[in-house]
Design brief:
The complex is a heterodimer. Chain A is an all-beta fold. Chain A contains no helices and 11 strands. The N and C termini of chain A lie far apart (about 35 Å). By secondary structure, chain B is mostly beta strands. Classes of the chains: A mainly beta, B mainly beta. Chains A and B meet through strand 5, strand 6 and strand 10 of A and strand 4 and strand 8 of B.
């Protein structure tokens, strides 16, 4: 079974702090994703990566950056946390899709619930 | 990017078949339809994916009419453990387009 792990289940940070969220997958997947989930809004894609050191913006990249130095690890960085970044953050991974693009069969981690005060 | 519309919530009873319909009027030629299930405090779980007609696996069936402007996820004989949020996702499986999960359908299965 694919296992996607996230560094913390719950995190509380103060406004202005730099926040690192770590994600590790053990299935040698090429693609990795970061989403946030808010009530009534479903999941929204922040960033994704289809290879080491490669990244692409998702739907809501503002205020976030990512890092992928190793294939199995994908980090989400909040450079200066703000209260509107309080959310559930979900990491996912997948194989490459058909034609080398995004696969829709993604495997998600348990999530990190981040609270910014 | 195709927008999807699903019912916000549905109720059912154990043992019944549940059909959740997703509308995607602007679906593009290269778009696939994918459904996920999510339990509280867990990440979504892939259920099924299709392009046209009917797809079936051990968990569900997916029905897609010829015009592909909608799709129906069918869950046979639901149990209490099927209580979850179900998301319909439409997008180009071969490209790098942004993926958007909508608000989903909250299914409640009652005894």
């Amino acid at each position: 079974d694919v296992k996607v792990t996230q560094s913390s289940r719950y995190l509380v940070k103060r406004t202005g702090e730099k926040v690192f969220l770590e994600c590790v997958q053990d299935m040698d997947h090429e693609n990795m994703f970061w989403y946030r989930q808010d009530p009534g809004l479903g999941l929204r894609l922040i960033y994704f990566s289809y290879d080491v050191k490669m990244k692409e913006k998702g739907d809501i990249p503002e205020g976030y950056s990512v890092s992928r130095e190793k294939k199995e690890r994908f980090s989400l960085i909040l450079e200066s946390a703000s209260t509107n970044q309080t959310s559930m953050y979900l990491c996912a991974s997948s194989l490459l899709g058909t034609s080398g693009g995004i696969s829709y069969e993604q495997y998600f981690g348990p999530g990190t619930r981040l609270t910014v005060t | 990017l195709a927008k999807t519309t699903q019912p916000i919530s549905m109720d059912s009873y154990e043992g019944q078949e549940v059909n959740i319909t997703c509308s995607h009027n602007n679906i593009a030629t290269n778009d696939y339809i994918t459904w996920y299930q999510q339990f509280p405090s867990q990440g979504p779980r892939f259920i099924i994916q299709g392009y046209k007609t009917k797809v079936t696996n051990e968990v569900a069936s997916l029905f897609i009419p010829a015009d592909r402007k909608s799709s129906t996820l069918s869950l046979p004989r639901v149990s209490l453990s099927d209580t979850a949020v179900y998301y319909c996702l439409v997008g180009d499986a071969g490209g790098y387009n942004k993926l958007i999960f909508g608000a989903g359908t909250r299914l409640a299965v009652h005894p």
